[in-house]
Write a structure and sequence with these properties.
This protein is 46% helix and 7% strand. The chain is an alpha+beta fold and 1487 residues long.
């Protein structure tokens, strides 16, 4: 300090200064230093500086004599010493005195250190200094410690060594860059911590002074922002836990502790008030603060320090004062009376119960929580993790987010660390991602292990960490489910009691709260009120009361003596309820009478007046001493004053008066009167009676040790670990008996008495209602559970029958009533008006349907393996091998060489942009539907669909729909009559079919009649046409040609049949009626299509039926005019298209024998096409061999049913033309390289015909209701042939099946084949190559698939996120790729916008007819576009923990989830995006 003053010396005028003592005198060093300090402190300190300079020159001069001087000055300076050592010592002493400014040098050093909070030791040493180096604590290999710091640190078991410094060094203790905190000297850090704690207390006192705080906060005010309290709390925690400081050495006095307690306690009370809706005027803002206060991101710096600070205060303050303060702060003091009625002066009755629950819950948390009271970092992490997992199953990332960060950053307990992962694997099981039937995709989740539920579930920790109260109920529901599933407890359990980790010795005083009279009186009072069914007491209150009692028993002192310590005379019980503070002994103490303050109308007043007339009662009262009186408020006032007086150092200090009028002591209200209640109960007796009450039986409790004494030796019985209130009471009584033999004896005595009914008094009707409340609650709960179970069963049944549209093989949906042959007339239930009845022409009923355009069929390929998504420039996907491309090429080729109208009858469209019709199975009246739509238009609620476009949701199942398909009125009995077989020959049936097609059918509804039914059929036909784009339904060379409508209508039927076949897996081996089949609306759709197709007529001259069943005499007539294009040869016709044309042109309902006739005729054409295709595929050598072999058998009796003879004849006929003469590469490409055998030829013919048989069988199933038999894959052809009536009844099944046996030629086979082959030869004369290409039909399309994705998402990301747009050659901001065709598109890209359509929307129309599936490269999620709407589907790439990483925010490696991708593909194939995904929104063409 003197040196600093000397350095600050400035010039200026000099006032007179006292002279330095004469040099000849022996100067006192301390006095000289004090004199110089005073001189240098003056404003004009020039003289002092000169004096100091002169003294330093004499003392520190290098030229000073080294021997003793003769004069006084030398003697004074040298201090009488001699030699160089004495002179140096003298100079050092002078420096110390001058630095200390006249005071003691040690005191000066201590004062300086107080201003230096550095934790570094910083000791510097020279050579030969002995130091230490610990490799366990060292971060740097050069770390060194001085001996003092080494021994003050804990290096037990460490790898250390002692060394002698060679060139000097410095102590690194406290330097976190060089060594770990675990090895730092405690002395360095402890002193630092003490200083910080002291400064925090000073800052807190300044804050108290600034807000004028004395002992009570302002009423109805609260702040969640208490940073000083929390800093102080955390410093205390670290001081005890990490630095082993004595807690009492850093704590303030009792008065300061009371101040510190108030504001955190006020927050806990305010939390209960907020949850009780007492702060509603503050809106959501106050709830937001309360949620922030407890949530995991802030709990380490908010609620946890507050709870810890309250625990510290409670461990040092008087327990009675603390307990009284809690209940007073929670405003439930008036409720804590044994009277049946009371008046709360500060709280509304509706809030009392929740506030009492809050107070008791807070006490349980305060006494149970060990986060800062002895738990290790690993234990804290495990407890946090278990609490979060018990609330709900968690994903790995959400668990990382929910676990609070450890306050110690060097603990190693951080999210993602080894400790985190090891604890997670120890407490949780991983559940792989699943897809639920309702449509929600579950990610990989972690769920608690069974042993965690059994042993570690801690409801107290769950309550502490819940932001929403529903999470507590969720944890209890999951706990209940575990107990029921494991068979540990069948009923409704209570929260389990969990043993706590041992308390740190510094906090043992916290347990005094459990052993104070105030808490015991509260517990006794609440038990009594619960037993007497007083109002505002819930099961939660009882649960918390029992929890506190059990905590007290678990944390009691050593076992008490068996002396009658609890038995006391009146003089000991005059002013207290219990004789002592130990809960174990107080439990058996009987309370005889209690004086209470009650309203004058209370029943206790009347009973008291009657009791006073009884001499026995009066004498009993006198013998028992004065009735007990207790006031929490008065108790707190008394304790407060005792603490203030004890803390005061001034004897005459006046105690601060309590002026707050917010809290009213019992008895202050004039309308109350005093009553004396006869109680005669103890806590033990109340518990036993409570057991009777909960069990519903008198004398239900029987001490278990009477039958098994071993239970007192090994009390840990599994049956007591889980259970309800009865189990909790039994567990508490057992622990009470274990703690004291006196308790054990009293419990046995109580149980031996015959317990009268509770309560033991006459009750009025009103009181009876109160007493029966619990029983009614129990019955209500049972009734509610039964209803919930029934509802859940119905809901599950409903989901299975009406909602699960993507699991056709597992569910049994709602049957359409028309399929029931027992009902004479189809009856429908309207889901709007609820009326039942048939569909009529005046009031038709319709099916709720969804019409949507589909290109799924067009994505079928002839390869089983799906195409791979391109991930390099060399990999590309070309669409010419798809089903849609092949059919487009075929139609274009036909239209190039043949008459346009004939071409449109030879093929089907709808492979791209076909209309698929599906229904939920529910029906409604058409007029009811119109009213429903009108109400939707007037509804102002935001909807996820467009009512103006006809969209709505089914009123019953809420499935998305956009039209109503009218049901054809008819009788099921009549339909059955039409199915009866007839004995007519095939020729007669052929004539009947031709006649029925040639004249208007006997359709019961004609367009001209303009009935409501016909109008609706026209309307739905318009809806069907408008569902798809014009380019997908207009293929004629002549725009607006009616041939387009004709082609479109029968192609709609073809599309729906083909899609149903795909939904069944591509074959009919499973048989039966699948979900898709039973939900199918094909029957009603066929009536609508047939009605409109009958409006068109095919000229009998060009009707394909004639070419199939008759021999044309003038076969050259069509070639008479060279300019006119010929008709399409019959062998170029698609047989399935011909089937639909023939069926839909027939009058409805169709007769079964007519249907079979049409199928038989068409099968002859199909089989001939198969033979022609086979002949084209083989080489010339094979054709010659087959031609010769078959010719030898032509004259046999069954020649027309021998594929060898027929193939030989086909080859002979086609050899007359140029079909086989074309040589070159094209022929080589068509020729099959396989070696043909009879078996392979038969298999080829069956495979060629199978698609037709499948579609025909499906059509028969829907038209006539016949089930499909199940079969093996190799039996499918024969089984379907038999079901369709193609096999003769006398066919021998034991012989190898031959497909040609199904043939039934309407005319001589060789004649009709010759006629058909002549048409081919005529065309191939000029166009041999095209003629051969048209004969090769690929009928064996495989199931459609989305593109195959790579295993690792990084492969996709690295290629596509840098890929440039083909339009602007720039890298898109949001690149995307179509998972159907692999096209790279720009999401929301303006560069690719065409006519207000962004590229993704435009591509969805071109690729999927309005349905697009895109993978967003920069987000790893799938986006679905359906028409004018879109939704985020989710991600098919998950991390190692089964989680999505949307927008790649976490940057974790992602891997394909094949199960999810299969679900996505299934939804695409089954057209259920609209039904399963619920979060849709309009895209406004902006994607």
């Amino acid at each position: 300090m003197a040196a600093a003053a000397a350095a600050a010396a400035v010039g200026g005028p000099q006032p007179p200064q006292p002279e330095l003592p004469a040099p000849g005198l022996a100067l006192d060093k301390a006095a000289t230093a004090a004199h110089l300090k005073a001189a240098l402190s003056r404003p004009d300190n020039r003289a002092g500086a000169e004096e100091l300079q002169a003294l330093l020159e004499r003392v520190l001069s290098a030229e000073r004599p080294l021997t003793a001087a003769a004069d006084g000055e030398e003697a004074a300076v040298a201090g009488g010493g001699g030699g160089p050592g004495a002179a140096e010592e003298e100079a050092l002493e002078w420096c110390k005195c001058l630095l200390a400014g006249g005071g003691g040098y040690d005191e000066f050093c201590a004062a300086v250190r107080a201003y230096d909070p550095a934790a570094l030791c910083g000791l510097v040493w020279t050579a030969n200094f002995v130091a230490y180096r610990c490799r366990t604590c060292g971060i740097s290999p050069c770390m060194s410690l001085c001996a003092e710091c080494f021994h003050q640190g804990d290096h037990t078991g460490h790898d250390f060594n002692m060394f002698r410094s060679q060139a000097g060094g410095a102590c690194d203790c406290g330097d976190s860059n060089v060594m770990r905190e675990s090895g730092v000297c405690k002395m360095e850090t402890q002193e630092y911590t003490r200083n910080v704690v002291r400064y925090c207390l000073e800052a807190l006192q300044d804050w108290f002074d600034a807000i004028n705080f004395v002992d009570e906060p302002a009423p109805n005010q609260v702040t969640f922002h208490l940073p000083l309290h929390r800093y102080y709390a955390m410093f205390l925690s670290k001081a005890v836990k990490c630095q082993e400081l004595d807690l009492d050495s850093v704590l303030p006095d009792q008065e300061m502790l009371m101040k510190l307690m108030i504001h955190p306690l006020q927050i806990q009370a305010s939390l209960a008030e907020i949850h009780s809706n007492m702060w509603v005027r503050n809106g959501l803002q106050i709830k937001g603060q309360a949620m922030t206060y407890v949530q995991s991101h802030f709990c380490n710096s908010m609620i946890d320090p507050d709870i810890y600070l309250l625990q510290v205060c409670a461990s040092r303050l008087d327990p009675d004062y603390f307990i009284s303060s809690v209940f007073e702060r929670f405003k439930v003091v008036d409720l804590l009376t044994m009277a049946s009625q009371h008046q709360n002066t500060v709280l509304d009755a509706e809030h009392e119960r929740s506030m009492l629950e809050g107070a008791l819950t807070f006490l349980v948390i305060l006494l149970s929580l060990r986060l800062h009271l002895g738990m290790s970092d690993d234990e804290i992490l495990r407890a946090e993790m278990v609490a979060q997992l018990c609330m709900n199953d968690r994903t790995h990332s959400s668990l990382l987010d929910l676990i609070p960060e450890n306050p110690n950053p060097k603990s190693g307990i951080i999210p993602g660390s080894y400790s985190f992962e090891s604890v997670l694997s120890a407490v949780a099981d991983f559940k792989a991602p699943v897809f639920e039937p309702g449509g929600s995709m579950q990610q990989g989740m972690y769920t608690p292990k069974a042993e965690v539920w059994d042993q570690e579930f801690d409801p107290v920790m769950v309550i502490l960490r819940t932001v929403y109260r529903r999470d507590v109920q969720s944890a209890m529901d999951r706990y209940t489910a575990f107990l029921k599933q494991s068979g540990k407890f069948p009923g409704n359990p209570w929260p389990p009691y969990k043993k706590r980790t041992p308390l740190h010795p510094s906090y043992k005083g916290l347990m005094r709260l459990l052993h104070c009279k105030t808490l015991h009186i509260v517990l006794f009072t609440l038990l009594y009120k619960i037993l007497m069914d007083h109002q505002n007491l819930s099961e939660h209150v009882l649960c918390m009361v029992l929890y506190l009692i059990e905590l007290g028993l678990e944390n009691s002192a050593e076992e008490e003596s068996d002396e009658e310590a609890s038995v006391c005379g009146p003089e000991r019980c005059h002013d207290s309820w219990f004789p002592g503070s130990n809960l174990v002994s107080n439990m058996r103490h009987f309370i005889n009478y209690v004086r209470v303050r009650v309203p004058e109308t209370a029943p206790e007043v009347k009973r008291d007046s009657l009791a006073s007339t009884s001499s026995d009662s009066l004498s009993s009262l006198q013998n028992s001493g004065t009735a007990q009186v207790f006031s929490l408020v008065a108790e707190r006032r008394k304790k407060f004053q005792e603490i203030i007086n004890r803390s005061s150092s001034e004897a005459n200090q006046v105690v601060r008066p309590k002026t707050s009028s917010k809290w009213s002591a019992p008895g202050s209200a004039p309308q109350l009167t005093t009553a004396i209640l006869e109680i005669k109960e103890s806590i033990l007796s109340l518990l036993i009676k409570l057991h009777h009450k909960l069990s519903g039986k008198q004398n239900s409790y029987y001490p278990p040790w009477l039958d098994d004494i071993e239970i007192l030796i090994q009390p840990e019985i599994p049956k007591y670990n889980h259970g309800d209130g009865i189990t909790a009471v039994e567990r508490i009584l057992l622990k009470a008996a274990l703690q004291s033999r006196m308790n054990k004896r009293i419990i046995e005595e109580i149980c031996r008495k015959v317990t009268p009914p509770v309560p033991p008094k006459k009750i009025t009707a009103a009181e009876k209602k109160t007493l029966d409340k619990e029983e009614r609650r129990q019955k209500a709960r049972e009734r509610q559970q039964k209803l919930l179970a029934e509802f859940a069963s119905r809901q599950k049944s409903f989901m299975e029958t009406a909602m699960d549209v993507d699991s056709p093989e597992n569910d049994i949906p709602m049957e359409i009533t028309t399929a029931e042959p027992q009902v004479s007339e189809a009856v429908y239930d309207c889901v709007i008006c609820g009326q039942s009845g048939p569909s009529s022409e005046d009031r038709p009923t319709g099916l709720v349907v969804l019409l949507q355009a589909s290109s799924v069929l067009g994505q079928c390929r002839d390869n089983i393996e799906p195409k791979k998504l391109p991930i390099t420039e060399e990999e590309q996907i070309y669409p010419w091998d798809t089903c849609a491309a092949v059919h487009d090429v075929r139609l274009s080729l036909l239209q190039r060489y043949f008459k346009d109208s004939s071409c449109l009858l030879a093929v089907s469209i709808g492979w791209e942009g076909g209309v698929y019709v599906q229904t939920c199975g529910h029906t409604l009246h058409i007029d009811c539907h119109k009213s429903y739509m009108e109400s939707l238009r007037n509804d102002q609620v935001l909807q996820g669909f467009s009512v103006d476009k006809g969209e709505f949701t089914c009123p019953l199942c809420r499935q998305f729909a956009n039209s109503v398909l009218p049901c054809y009125p008819g009788s099921n009995v009549e339909s059955n009559l039409w199915q009866r077989p007839s004995n007519k020959s095939i020729q007669d049936l052929i004539k009947e079919v031709e006649e029925l097609q040639g004249r208007p059918g006997a359709f019961p509804v004609s367009i001209s009649s303009e009935t409501n039914l016909s109008k609706e059929m026209e309307s739905v036909m318009k809806d069907i046409k408008n569902t798809t784009q014009k380019k997908y339904r207009d293929y004629s060379k002549t725009p607006g040609s009616p041939d387009n409508d004709f082609l479109f209508m029968y192609s709609v039927a073809r599309t729906n049949l083909e899609l149903e076949l795909i939904h069944r897996g591509g074959n009919l081996c499973s048989g039966g009626a699948s979900t898709a089949g039973k939900r199918s609306c094909l029957n009603q759709l066929f009536h609508v299509l047939a009605l409109h197709m009958r409006l068109y007529s095919i000229d009998s001259e060009y009707n394909p039926w004639r070419k199939l069943t008759q021999l044309v005499e003038e076969v050259n007539s069509q070639q008479g005019n060279e300019e006119q294009q010929p008709e399409v040869p019959i062998l170029y016709h698609d047989v399935t298209s011909l089937l639909l044309i023939q069926i839909l042109m027939m009058p409805q309902p169709l007769r079964k024998d007519h249907f079979t006739c049409i199928v038989k005729v068409l099968f002859t054409l199909l089989y001939t096409q198969a033979l022609v295709a086979l002949s084209v595929k083989c080489n010339e050598e094979d054709r010659s061999a087959w031609k010769h072999t078959g010719a030898l058998k032509k004259n046999t009796c069954d020649a027309e049913k021998s594929y060898e003879v027929l193939l030989s004849f086909v080859i002979s006929e086609l050899s007359k033309g140029k079909l086989y003469h074309e040589e070159g590469t094209q022929e080589c490409a068509m020729v099959s390289p396989i070696a043909w055998s009879p078996e392979s030829m038969e298999k080829y013919l069956q495979d060629f015909c199978l698609p037709f048989l499948r579609i025909t069988s499906l059509l028969q199933h829907h038209l006539f209701g016949e089930d499909l038999p199940s079969c093996q894959e190799e039996e499918e052809f024969s089984i379907l042939s038999s079901c369709l009536g193609l096999l003769p009844t006398f066919y021998q099944t034991e012989h190898p099946f031959i497909s040609a046996s199904c043939l039934d030629w309407p005319v001589p086979a060789f004649d009709i084949i010759s006629q058909w082959c002549f048409e081919i030869n005529s065309f191939t004369e000029r166009h041999a190559e095209q003629g051969k290409a048209l004969l090769i039909q690929e009928s064996r399309w495989k199931l459609p698939h989305l593109l195959q994705l790579p295993e690792n998402y990084n492969t996709i990301f690295q290629y596509y996120h840098r890929k440039t747009c083909s339009v602007c050659t720039k890298v898109p901001k949001d690149p995307a790729v179509c998972l159907v065709c692999g096209t790279f598109v720009c999401l929301k890209g303006l560069c690719c916008k065409q006519q207000s359509y962004c590229e993704c929307v435009l591509h969805s129309q071109n690729c999927g007819a309005g349905t697009g599936i895109f993978l967003l490269i920069n987000a790893s999620v799938i986006i679905i576009i359906r028409g004018h709407r879109f939704c985020l589907w989710g991600s098919v790439y998950l991390d190692a923990h089964g989680e999505e990483d949307r927008d790649l925010r976490r940057g974790k490696p992602l891997y394909i989830c094949k199960e999810r991708y299969k679900v996505l593909e299934q939804q695409w194939i089954s057209h259920t995006f609209d039904h399963i995904n619920k979060r849709w929104g309009p895209h406004y063409n902006g994607l």
